[in-house]
Structure formats: C-alpha cells, structure tokens
Amino acid sequence: MISEREIVESLTFKAEIDNVSVAEGLVDRICESQSIDEDAYGNVLIAVTEAVNNAIIHGSKLNKDLDVTIDVLKTDSDVVFKISDTGEGFDFNNLEDPTDPKNIEKPNGRGIFLMKNLADSVEYLDKGNVVELSFKV
C-alpha cells in the first residue's frame, strides 16, 4: 500500500549560490518539526544542500532569473525533500563513478554519490531536473 504524501512546507528561491543557506534553514526547521534525530540530521543536511547546489549550479546554471523549489512531503514513514529546477535536466542513468581511480582527482562529481549514500532513497523525476530525497522517520 502506498501511503499518502502530505506537503509539510514549500519554498522557492532564486538560483543564487547564497541561497543554499535558505535551504539549510529549511532543513533545520523540518528536522526539528518532524523529530528527525540528531544522528540523521547531518545526512539530511548534506544530501539536501548537495541537491540544491546541483539545481543552482548545473540545472539553473547560476541564472538568477530562474527559481529552485523545495517541497517537503511527509508520509507515514518518510520525510521527502523534492528539489526542482527549470533546467534542461541530465542523463541520471549514466553517471561516472567518482570512486573510479580515473575520477579520484576530479574536483567535481561527488554530489550525487553523496546523496545516494546519505539518503534512504534518491529518485530522479521528469528529465532529471527533479530529485526526491527520502529519509526514514
């Protein structure tokens, strides 16, 4: 049985790197209001800020005229952060492995790897410009 998803909060902001702090504030509020334990807080914070960074930098290409939206949804067992941008998306099925020795020295390419290892589930929707990060509660 699929549990119902209730919208807890929704936030939209301009695709500016300084607005990552806005996302961090949202994570703080949600973790407190949804009683996410302190041990999981770091995982939520890092995964969500990585997704927001990707939406701002890669999805919106730092275009201050574009928006990034975070919808926070709650089910019986999860809190879901849905991060959306209006960019072109990307092929999320064909990503380079950042742990491959040929990629170790690269300065980028670890955000999605981190998200997948910190969230309980990561799902890309649409054309890759929407990501849902789920955390068990």
How many distinct folded domains? 1
Based on CA inertia axes, which overall geometry fits?
globular
* Main sheet summary: 5 strands, antiparallel
| Spatial ordering of strands, largest sheet | 1-2-3-5-4
* H and E string: EHHEEHEE
Q: What do we call the CATH homologous superfamily?
A: Histidine kinase-like ATPase, C-terminal domain
Percent of residues in beta strands?
25-35%
Give descriptors for this structure.
Heat Shock Protein 90; alpha+beta; 5-stranded antiparallel beta sheet; 137 residues; single chain; 5 strands
Model description:
This protein is of the alpha+beta class and 137 residues long. It has one domain: 2-Layer Sandwich (Heat Shock Protein 90), CATH 3.30.565.10. The protein is built from 3 helices and 5 strands, in the order βααββαββ. It has helices spanning 20-33, 38-59, 111-118, and strands at residues 6-14, 67-74, 78-85, 121-125, 130-136. A 5-stranded antiparallel beta sheet has the order 1-2-3-5-4, covered by helices on one side. A hairpin with a 4-residue loop joins β4 (121-125) and β5 (130-136). The longest helix is centred in the middle third of the chain and has 22 residues, at 38-59.
Short description:
This protein is an alpha+beta fold and 137 residues long. The protein has helices at residues 20-33, 38-59, 111-118, and strands at residues 6-14, 67-74, 78-85, 121-125, 130-136.
